[in-house]
Structure to design on (274 residues):
């Protein structure tokens, strides 16, 4: 079965939705066991990770939302709250990959009493200073002004620079990713990608003070061939959380190991969830 067909079947089997402030949020729930809220990356569609989530769901209850084109980080927080409430989830593990890792760090601030552990995969500390805002504003302006197809192509190209596609399935994965970008996402989604990042920077939500009273474990999954990772990430995390973090080395599995190497990725992830 082709990747796009598998995504469609996954969505049909596990897809749910909740309305928050008149906006529809699609999400997926599957599996039984200890719950994990998994926040997907910049492609904004969690179903791309169907294979890894189905494997993870053999031992865990997995909840993973898609991202509609919202304008503020507060809308994300409200939606995640609503999804967990709809699913009667109390304490849980919070995980995020890439862009989702930034969202996870923000969400932890308000839900620290409920989060048992934090799993950050192929992402960096979200304690950005305001010096980053001009770059975000340029991206927002371009996303609003350029032709929509150009905007989508630029975001796709930027994301693909971080992705090492498996040769055996390269054509099929490119088809799936381009189908999502061109058929499911809009200009508003691209604008949202940068507007929300700018919003969390302006509000300075992620700071050491914000985590002072949270005592959960922090796991960082990082690949040696991931161009988005830095040797400075772990020291920054330790400064941010005020303690040592537990690093799980993904070797050369790349930025999107969850998509392209689901078996090995879940085995590694289970070390953090055990």
């Amino acid at each position: 079965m082709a990747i796009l067909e598998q995504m469609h079947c996954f969505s049909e089997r596990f897809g749910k939705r909740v309305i928050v402030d008149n906006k529809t949020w699609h999400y997926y729930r599957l599996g039984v066991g200890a719950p994990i809220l998994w926040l997907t990356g910049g492609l904004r569609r969690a179903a791309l990770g169907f294979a890894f989530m189905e494997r993870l769901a053999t031992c865990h209850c997995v909840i993973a939302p898609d991202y509609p084109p919202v304008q503020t980080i507060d809308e994300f927080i409200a939606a995640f709250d609503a999804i967990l409430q709809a699913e009667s989830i109390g304490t849980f593990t919070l995980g995020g990959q890439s862009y989702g890792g930034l969202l996870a760090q923000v969400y932890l601030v308000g839900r620290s009493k409920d989060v048992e552990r934090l799993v950050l995969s192929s992402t960096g500390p979200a304690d950005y200073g305001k010096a980053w805002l001009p770059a975000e504003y340029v991206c927002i302006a371009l996303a609003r002004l350029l032709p929509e197809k150009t905007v989508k192509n630029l975001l796709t190209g930027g994301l693909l620079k971080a992705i090492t596609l498996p040769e055996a399935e390269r054509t099929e994965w490119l088809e799936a990713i381009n189908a999502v970008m061109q058929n499911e996402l809009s200009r508003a989604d691209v604008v949202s990608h940068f507007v929300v990042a700018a919003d969390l920077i302006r509000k300075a939500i992620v700071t050491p003070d914000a985590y002072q009273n949270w005592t959960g474990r922090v796991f960082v999954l990082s690949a040696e061939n991931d161009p988005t990772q830095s040797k400075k990430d772990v020291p920054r995390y330790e400064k941010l959380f005020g303690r040592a973090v537990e690093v799980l080395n993904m070797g050369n599995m790349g930025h999107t190991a969850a998509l392209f190497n689901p078996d090995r990725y879940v085995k590694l992830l289970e070390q953090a969830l055990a």
Observations:
- The chain has one domain: 3-273.
